[in-house]
Amino acid sequence: MTPKQARLTVLIIFGLFIFWRLCYPPVVNVDKWNTAIGISIELIGGIVLLGLLSFLQNVHRLWFYFQTTVLLRNEEIRLSIAYLYRIKVDDKYLLVKNTRRELFQPVGGVYKTLPGSEKIFRELDIRPDRHINTELGIAKGDLRVHVPGKHVLEFLDWFDSKQDRETSPWREFCEELLTTGILNHTKAFRYIDYHFRGTIRTPIIELDTGGKGMFQFDIFDLEINDEQRPVLEALLAEGDKPDYIWASSYLIDRLGHDEGTRTRVYEIAKHTKWAHNMKWSKG
């Protein structure tokens, strides 16, 4: 049951109870004043119960709940929800170049919506982000959206329900490694195995483009089988290329900066570090 459904259920139950109390008072011939006082007390109890219900449902995210439903209630917040792969061979991680910026990052990308998501978008007054250009034009169906603060929790609950949205991380793996030819042994990667390692969510932050936003990433570890390992080891042996690199933990944690030589070897995107350490950080 979603928080919205839970609140509605409580309101219906108390509404029916008060209606029953009006029609069938507990004491015959009781005066109207005492009846009104009794109903008022019960109504206050219902409101308190509703508040307690909201508290218990959001006890693990109280500050976030207060931010979105009170402080930023009427402000739009840009949400981006994506998945990333950690692909590790011999203590090096495979990173690919961002198609829009000169940054290297893990394989992955934003989830897509599916037909049927239009209903929740209308109900929560969600606006798709139409400012991301791709080789095929403006990105469509991406879970980069603008959500009113008061609806952020409901939107995230909808995402967690997995209804009417992409659930498999296969598409971006295929697009970024197989379609591009980085992994040209497609037979070895006709299927892949992966482990879900967790979710990283940033706080609500000020965006460089203006306004407030939040990023969420599901992190997966590629489970490399015996057929795939030689292919990836050969790719590692070829060294870095313009479209991809192999980065150590040291370079990822420093976003490509080598403190020994005091040079920036690569430009590595911040969320690469978050995925590597499984936690958000400002730097």
Report the strand count: 15
Major sheet size, sense and barrel closure: 7 strands, mixed
| Spans of at least 5 consecutive residues with low confidence | 134-138
Q: What's the level 1 CATH class of the largest domain? A: Alpha Beta
Beta-strand percentage range: 15-25%
Q: What is the CA-atom radius of gyration, in angstroms?
A: 25 Å
How far apart the termini lie comes to: 38 Å
Give a verbal description of the structure.
- There is one protein chain.
- With 283 residues, this protein is of the alpha+beta class.
- It has two domains: 55 residues; 202 residues, Nucleoside Triphosphate Pyrophosphohydrolase, CATH 3.90.79.
- 37% of the residues lie in helices and 23% in strands.
- The strands form four sheets. Strands 1, 5, 6, 9, 10, 11 and 12 form a seven-stranded mixed beta sheet that branches. Strands 2, 3, 4 and 13 form a four-stranded antiparallel beta sheet that branches.
- A hairpin with a 4-residue loop joins strand 14 and strand 15.
- Helix 1 packs antiparallel against helix 2.
- The longest helix is centred in the N-terminal third of the chain and has 26 residues.
- The two termini are 38 Å apart.
